[in-house]
Every structure is written in C-alpha cells, then in structure tokens.
Amino acid sequence: MSLDRINRKIISTLQREARITNQELAERVGLSPSSCLNRVKKLEQQGLIGPYLSVLNLPALCRSVTVIATVSLKDQSTEAFRQFQQQAGEIDEVVECYTVSGAFDLFLKVVAADMGRYNAINDRLLDLLPGKVNISSHVVLNEDKPFRGYPLGALLD
C-alpha cells in the first residue's frame, strides 16, 4: 500500500507516542486538527493502525518468567497446525505465536507467574496433540532490546 508523506509521519508519530493529542499531532505533521483526525480515522478504518496498547513495566508490576518455546509438530498437516495454533492462542500466557521455517515449526513467547506455572502451560501445550508435539523451552534471562516499534523509514522506502 502506498502512503503519502503526511500519513507516514502520522503513523510514525503514533507508533512512538500513541497518547499524543490530535492537536499536537496535527501541528507536527502540518495539518489542521480536523484534517489530521480524518486521516487518523481513515488509517484506523483501513486497519493500518490500532489497536492502541500501553507498554507495561512488568518487572515493576509483578514477578514473572518469560520463556521462548520452540515447537515442532510431528504431524505436519494443515489441520494439526491449525488446531495447535488455535488452542495455543487460547492460553492467556502465550503472548505471541509465530509459524516459522527452519528447525522448528512454531515460536511461542510465554509469560508466566513463575516456573511452576510455565511447567503447567508446557504440559497443556504438549497435551494439545498428544504424542505429536516436541517443545524446547528457553528461559529469557534479560530483555536486551525490547520491541519499541517498526523501522518504518527502512520499510516504507
């Protein structure tokens, strides 16, 4: 999809500062507030921006453990993948799930209260397709570069 310079500035600004006022956003991109709001609403309707989320400081809120689980399915059928993806997606602690190429089939990011809770989640994942799932768990020791937005300048050129 082609975006004009102003829409690129709007998207880039909202990615960094989702709580910016429409007035401030309009000033930064050189539009009237009503024109800016119309563009933002159109970008939302097109599914290019939203939903708006807050980045939480999880260590300040609670104790938790983050685990990267790499999953291999012995049954490579479309139905097995669909079933696993759908049921894994219903587990609240599975915060991200990607189907990938390479040495394993899926990449899950799991955030649990503690290792005991992660172990219960791991068992639940194994039970989704009994005898047909292999999981390798990798405990995150430090989040060295947290996600802070996409490199839009490099991606949209």
UniProtKB/TrEMBL annotation:
GO MF, one example: sequence-specific DNA binding
InterPro entries, sorted: ArsR-like_HTH (IPR011991), AsnC-type_HTH_dom (IPR000485), Dimeric_a/b-barrel (IPR011008), Tscrpt_reg_AsnC-like (IPR019888), Tscrpt_reg_AsnC/Lrp_C (IPR019887), Tscrpt_reg_HTH_AsnC-type_CS (IPR019885), WH-like_DNA-bd_sf (IPR036388), WH_DNA-bd_sf (IPR036390)
Gene Ontology CC terms: cytosol
Keyword terms, alphabetized: DNA-binding, Transcription, Transcription regulation
CDD domains reported in the protein's UniProt record: HTH_ARSR (cd00090)
Organism: Motiliproteus coralliicola
GO terms classed as biological process: regulation of DNA-templated transcription; response to amino acid
Boundaries of every HTH asnC-type domain copy: 3-64
Name this polypeptide is given: Lrp/AsnC family transcriptional regulator
One of the Pfam families matching this protein, by short name: AsnC_trans_reg
